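Weekly structure sync, notes
Attendees: PL (lead), two postdocs, one rotation student
Agenda item 3: pending single-chain targets
PL asked that the sequence for the first pending target be pasted directly into the notes so everyone works from the same version. It is reproduced below exactly as submitted, 209 residues in total.
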Amino acid sequence: MFTGLIETIGKVGKFHQTGEFFTLTIEANFSGELKIGESVSVSGACLTVTRNDAKSFDVEMMRETFNRTWFGKTLRTGTKLNLERALRVTDRLDGHFVLGHVDGVAKLTDIKGIETKEAIFTPEDRNLLRGIVEKGSVCIDGISLTVIKVNDKNFSVGLIPATLKATTLGELKVGGLVNLETDILGKYIERLTMYNKNSGNYLTSLLEM
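Predicted structure, written out during the meeting:
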């Protein structure tokens, strides 16, 4: 589990496929502190460390992750990545609960403002907008952000100068792709609502337990 607060920006060193898995080598300043088996949020995707040294570390990616993220479309050697190590129980929770399970990809369709900016994103799958609410939280490329507006086509978030400087969003151009994870609370509510529609009083009985 993560918070959506980016620790550092890493860079792709190597990227290749081995059988059904993809191995990604990432150059990062905390590589030497990692342990084999540790989870790292890589631009919003939770991946497991399989090798590390003082300068870089490897993670393995399943085809599902490769296909669901922008990694399968635009990942190249030298690509910059937002990185965050897993949340410790004793840490402050300054962002929101981020699982690192990417729901899909969204495109930056517009950006307004000079210093503080409002960025508008359009998901490839419009159904993901059901899990996004105004003033709620959303995770974009591993970054915890607050939703400003949402409609049936897109949503917008606010970007302060500190976020633009500390993450890859500072270099993202209109038309660029990001990994999107909606709030876990919204997913559970949608799931319960679906059960309520399909099985009558399921939701009512569950709430009375």
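Discussion points:
- The longest strand covers residues 8-18.
- The helical segments are 63-68, 71-74, 161-166, 184-198, 202-207.
Action: rotation student to compare against the earlier draft before next sync.
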